[in-house]
Specification:
This protein has 181 residues and is mostly helical. The chain has one domain. It is 56% helix and 0% strand. It contains six helices and no strands. The longest helix has 28 residues.
């Protein structure tokens, strides 16, 4: 799924949790949304900056970049930065990595950081929305290389369905109008 959708779905989940009033301290929507985007930011920010810098400084050429019809993740024999992106992607998209970090933060803060649930949702949503052709989600890495051959989140029908559903969800979660005006 795209990074913006991840942030919006995480924020929607936090807003829903806050509306139930079954939690002591309301979840911060912005923080939860950022945690929802965290796995992709972690995996692709440094490689993206390196790639843009390389293109601007003419140390990387467009011919070095993968073509749209090539299998993803990008071939690692062209640029070492693609190996880094794949490694960071495996780290940030693994439940095996997420849970110990969540527990460690819980132990340090002496309370669960429920906003980190956005990270969990990101991994969960990526499993069915990535195919073998485009960064299949290594959700059990480093214990297993098991991946699921889902469908592409970039297909037009899914983008339309995803954002339409997000719009409906946020409409349903909006505050009730004040009747005493």
């Amino acid at each position: 799924m795209d990074i913006i959708s991840h942030g919006l779905w995480a924020a929607a989940a936090a807003k829903t949790a806050n509306k139930t009033k079954k939690i002591r301290k309301p979840l911060n929507l912005w923080r939860t949304g950022l945690w929802g985007m965290f796995p992709d930011l972690f995996a692709f920010t440094v490689p993206f900056i390196w790639l843009i810098g390389g293109l601007l400084l003419k140390e990387v050429s467009l011919s070095d970049l993968p073509k749209p019809d090539e299998t993803e993740p990008a071939p690692t024999d062209r640029l070492p930065i693609f190996r880094l992106a794949s490694m960071l992607y495996s780290v940030s998209h693994s439940f095996i990595i997420f849970f110990p970090i969540f527990i460690l933060v819980w132990l340090i803060w002496r309370r669960p950081a429920w906003e980190m649930g956005g990270w969990f949702l990101h991994i969960l949503f990526d499993i069915p929305t990535h195919s073998y052709r485009f960064y299949p989600t290594p959700f059990l890495w480093p214990i297993s290389d098991l991946r699921f051959d889902g469908f592409s989140w970039g297909t037009p029908w899914f983008i339309i369905l995803n954002y339409s559903t997000l719009a409906v969800v946020f409409l349903l979660l909006r505050p009730a109008p004040n009747k005493h005006l």
